[in-house]
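User: I'm putting together notes for a lab meeting next week and I want to include a structural view of one of the chains we've been expressing. I don't have a solved structure, so I'd like a prediction I can at least talk through. The sequence is below, exactly as it appears in our construct file.
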Amino acid sequence: MQTNEKLTFPKMGCGTWAWGNRLLWGYDESMDNDLQNVFNLCVGNGVTLFDTGDSYGTGKLNGRSEMLLGQFSQAYRGVNQNNICIATKLAAYPWRWSRRAMISACAASAERLGKNVDLVQMHWSTANYFPWQEWELLDGLGDLYEQGKVKGIGLSNFGPKRLKKVYERFSDRGIPITTLQVQYSLLSTYPVTELGLKEVCDELGIKLIAYSPLALGILTGKYSETGDLPKGIRGFLFKQILPGIRPLLLCLEAVAKSRNKTMSQVAINWCICKGTIPIPGAKNKAQAEQNIGALGWELDSGEVAELDQAAGSTDKKMVQNIFQTK
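Assistant: Thanks for the context. Below is the predicted structure for the 326-residue chain, given as structure tokens.
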């Protein structure tokens, strides 16, 4: 029997890709107390949407992000505790090829969370390489909604053409698509400016979530061509990108100074002004506080236009997710 509750979303959420990821983000179990502080601070300030995935974590730590979110949400007592919304993305692994596989995957996520998943999302589209697999998995998501095991369904990394096809298929079953998330920031405008996803989402009544709004941290202003870079893959990537985005970073810095805000706060606020729900990550209290400072004010249209122009004229862009479809 279908007993889906209505989901409500804050202006900004919190991404938890780093919670359990050693390879890219240097996660270590000793960080768990800091992460619990991040969770508490976010919820206390109205940032009640947490985005995770069943593949989040490295190696044996897969599912770690969900497990931590389960522990933190059960331990939390205080303001907004009834508004906590945990959104998880189920990976389209090659061994998941039936609708039952998605039902089992969601049950495993719910076990790690210690509660039902609020918003279940398809992590990526398989349309470019295994289109037959995608419909089975999506039908499984629909089953979860019809069985009342989730409050809503979302998609991730889908372009407008695929989105419309999925929308039609779900409409036939009376199932709404609540959200779509894509990589979107001042360094990754492609989904909106070139694919036109915002207009399509508005037309279909779908909320657009912006993941990686700080472009893996390059838009924080912490890193420069001559200064220290993060270790590993991010450092290598930043080295390639930083020389080509100097004008954008200077524009971001100028707007931040005139507003008495940080570059991160301006970059996140820009995403909000574009009608998206950004989900920046945070590994400690200071980063969470910084993100929260992006709320409660708005850039004016002149500042947005200035940033748009700087973003449009950069020589380099952030690498696009390979699973993003058209």
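A couple of points you could mention at the meeting. Strands lie at 14-15, 49-53, 85-90, 119-122, 152-156, 179-183, 207-211, 277-278. The chain has a mean pLDDT of 93.

User: Perfect, that's what I needed.
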